[in-house]
Design a protein that fits this description.
With 775 residues, the protein is mostly beta strands. It contains one helix and 67 strands. Strand 16 and strand 17 form a beta hairpin. The radius of gyration is 33 Å and the shape is flat. The N terminus is likely disordered.
Length: 775
């Protein structure tokens, strides 16, 4: 499912020591951020808790080992250096890295696979006179200080084409860059700020007007800065490719990319053919990779241009628009269900697609643009054949527009696609998913690097975005390594989140990183409804509110084993069964290490919305010197039936050391108070005869006590003496007796009534209606 790989350290530092209760490693900076495919380089990771590093994880694969030529490498908590060999075939573009120690795994940091030579900024270049000299092509890596600028100079010749790009926001930096190109006379000849499609980054191309020394200035548009306001400044002669066309291709089918256009003119020797491998894994349905164009050399050969853009691979059939299709009579005809790829060739371009649909054949038209790097902002419209508009949608916040269209009658309809701001050009590609409207949901995980303590559990909140599916969602982590178990987790009806917990044995191996999948499974009308949890919001929040993190990385959660916690918690049972207007109890048991004897405070996770509406969870602390507490749950009569999962967060303190620990997930199973089954399900009874019925009662575990059982709607002349089912039994015989003068009759509404009283409340259930014939 995921195109991620683990780089395994071939050399582990034997003398590395670990504190008894260490923290997970953290990476604040990666030096360099640009890695060239096919090369072996030293990569320094700077951060905290990095001593004893054991593995380097990347999203593209390769080979790594702790660098042996760096003194005391692997012993410094603040930095560690790996020697990394990058595969020649690895996709250029933005990728992710993480590092592991025996304390766990770090959060993801973005790097770039880029063939341009890397130059480190001198950081002494904050005036034009002290500009740092560079040789083109190159990628300069550095940061901008507060109220400062960075300058770089290069020798240029008249008519030389120069491309300049700043990668900052796309790499998670808070820097909001602006870049200026300054001629030999100190005058600005080109500049860029917030280039469309680059999420705030800058990019420009210019033809130098004369021979001389040129300068490039990089600054924050707000003149803010610090060591974390990092950037990569790419300078050379490369294509400004941000969106290939088509944006999405069908897996297993040879597709041709058009990488020509105003930004690529004279660089592409024809078109580029590519076949993405098919996959047996249906999730996620749209996978993302990077592609690079080719360029012609004077000798007639072609080489890869040092530029890249994301493209999608889908199992669905794809349609590529053909111009002209601006006018209604020029609309491209497509099959309903084909996914559509188009491009606004010029400002004001309008694309039309006509399709045949039958009444009730509902489909969802979902735009895909900005999240994949296209500056296009789509307006989708659907028209009848007579020109009447039926539906319209544009983007909502960060979400591209979508239309759920249910044709009112059989016939032809037209999808009209245009840029909301009437822009156009070779970058303005778009994609429209066209899928049948079905109950669906999406999932988001609130953590992307999970560290589970040996002998304990790790908790991660899973949030559902429901689209017509309102049932229970079972959530589980898959592809877990040996010693780790995904505990039962349910997002119940009426809820949009739950806490997924993963448990580790005390023997589970530390120091290794494992790719996992977090899957949600539901069922509607006997059909499965599934989704894989994405990391979009998590990566966004961890990277300075980056609107659209790299699409090739949003399905890449990992897990590692962390040191054992001084307290572990376990419920006396993995689930509690109760019902409406019922209550139940469960014990929470603590295993403490020596010296950890203080109160254990408990709170529902998350605190604001961690339990289903209508349920109260009487959470009390585990008192100092004790190892368990009995917790009570109660539900009102409005709680939906089904399964729900809750988890508690425990806090304990010893001296100045405060630990936060999760309980395993606890399944709350809300069931009807009583269930009833009758055998046989009706029958015949003769005058002066009897019919024996076996009544089986399924009590909710929260109910105890005897059950009164009687018959309802008996025909004239037929009677049944009420019976009482003892508290320790589940079945009893109820006898129907017909008098000698009973009327011959057939009814279809005989019911068996069961009732139990608990305090001042009564709970009752009636069987389905049964047939009865008096002969």
């Amino acid at each position: 499912m995921k195109l991620v790989r683990l780089i395994t350290a071939a050399f582990c530092l034997a003398s590395a020591t670990t504190a008894a209760f260490g923290q997970a490693p953290a990476v604040n900076n990666v030096i360099p951020r640009g890695w060239a495919p096919g090369q072996t380089i030293h990569v320094k990771l700077v951060g905290g808790n990095l001593a004893g590093a054991t593995q380097l994880w990347t999203s593209f694969g390769g080979i790594a080992q702790l660098a042996t030529d760096v003194p005391d490498n692997g012993k410094n908590a603040g930095e560690v250096t790996f020697q990394v060999t990058i595969p020649e075939t690895a996709d250029w573009g933005i990728h992710g890295v993480r590092v592991a120690t025996d304390k766990g795994v770090s959060a993801m940091r973005f790097i770039v696979l880029d063939p341009l030579p890397v130059v480190a900024s001198s950081q002494q270049n904050n005036t034009a006179d002290t500009a740092q000299e560079v040789t083109l092509p190159c990628a300069v890596e550095g940061y901008v200080d507060n109220l400062s600028r960075s300058y770089f100079k290069f020798a240029g010749t008249a008519e030389q084409r120069v491309t300049i790009e700043v990668q900052a926001r796309r790499l998670g930096s808070p820097l909001d860059p602006i870049v200026r190109l300054i001629n030999p006379h100190g005058r600005e000849i080109a500049w860029s700020d917030d280039e469309p499609g680059l999420q705030g980054d800058s990019q420009l191309a210019a033809t130098l007007p004369e021979t001389g020394e040129y300068r490039v200035e990089v600054s924050d548009i707000r003149y803010q800065g610090s060591g974390n306001h990092q950037f990569r400044l790419r300078i050379g002669d490369f294509a400004l490719l941000n969106t290939p066309y088509p944006m999405v291709i069908q897996a297993g089918v040879e597709s041709t990319y058009d990488l020509t256009g105003e930004e690529l003119e004279g660089r592409q020797g024809g078109q580029l053919s590519f076949t993405a491998p098919a996959t047996d894994t249906p999730l996620p349905p749209l996978r993302w990779h990077n592609i690079s164009p080719l360029r012609n050399l004077p000798d007639g050969s072609r080489v890869a241009d040092p530029s890249f853009a994301p493209f999608g691979v889908s199992p669905a059939a794809q349609f590529l628009e053909t111009e002209p299709n601006d006018a209604p009579e020029q609309a491209n005809r497509v099959e309903l269900g084909q996914h559509i790829n188009g491009r606004f060739e010029r400002p004001g371009d309008v694309d039309r697609f006509v399709f045949t649909a039958k009444a009730g054949q509902a489909h969802r038209f979902q735009a895909v643009t900005r999240e994949a790097g296209s500056p296009a902002d789509l307006l989708l419209q659907i028209y009848k054949s007579d020109g009447g508009k039926l539906a319209e949608a544009e983007d909502v916040g960060l979400d591209d527009g979508a239309i759920d269209f249910n044709p009112p009658a059989d016939g032809d309809y037209t999808l009209v696609v245009r840029d909301l701001h009437q822009r156009g050009g070779s970058r303005f590609a778009y994609h429209v998913n066209v899928d049948p409207v079905k109950p669906r949901f999406g999932l988001q995980a609130t953590a992307e690097a999970l560290n589970v303590p040996a002998g304990g559990v790790v908790a991660v909140q899973i949030t559902a975005q429901r689209g017509g599916y309102n049932g229970t969602i079972r959530v589980e982590a898959r592809n877990l390594p040996e010693g780790l178990t995904s505990l039962p987790t349910y997002i119940g009806q009426g809820r949009n989140d739950a806490i997924l917990t993963i448990a580790a044995t005390k023997e589970a191996a530390a120091g290794t990183i494992s790719d996992i999948d977090i899957i949600g499974i539901g069922e509607q009308n006997g059909e499965p409804v599934t989704a894989v949890a994405a990391l979009h919001e998590t990566l966004k929040n961890a990277n300075n509110a980056l609107p659209w993190p790299p699409r090739n990385l949003i399905y890449s959660p990992v897990i590692a084993v962390a040191p054992e916690q001084p307290v572990s918690l376990q419920f006396s049972a993995p689930e509690v069964v109760y019902g409406r207007d019922l209550s139940a109890t469960v014990k929470l048991i603590a295993a403490r290490q020596e010296g950890w004897d203080a109160d254990i405070a408990l709170a529902v996770n998350p605190a604001q919305n961690g339990i289903p509406a209508g349920v109260t969870f009487n959470v009390q602390p585990i008192k100092a010197g004790t190892n368990e507490i009995e917790l009570s749950l109660a539900a009102n009569n409005q709680v939906p039936l089904g399964e729900f999962t809750v988890a508690l967060t425990a806090t304990i303190k010893k001296d100045n050391d405060t630990r936060t620990i999760s309980t395993p997930g606890l399944t709350l199973r809300v069931q009807d108070p009583l269930g009833i089954a009758v055998e046989p399900a009706g029958g015949k009874i003769a005058r002066d005869g009897e019919l024996k019925l076996t009544v089986t009662i399924n009590r909710n575990p929260a109910l105890a006590g005897p059950v009164s059982i009687s018959a309802l709607n008996l025909p004239k002349g037929v009677a049944a003496e009420a019976v009482t089912l003892p508290a320790d039994q589940n079945s009893i015989e109820l006898v129907l007796k017909a008098a000698g003068d009973a009327d011959a009759a057939t009814i279809d509404n005989l019911q068996i009534h069961a009732e139990i009283a608990v305090g001042d409340k009564k709970f009752a259930v009636d069987s389905p209606k049964l047939p009865l014939t008096v002969e």
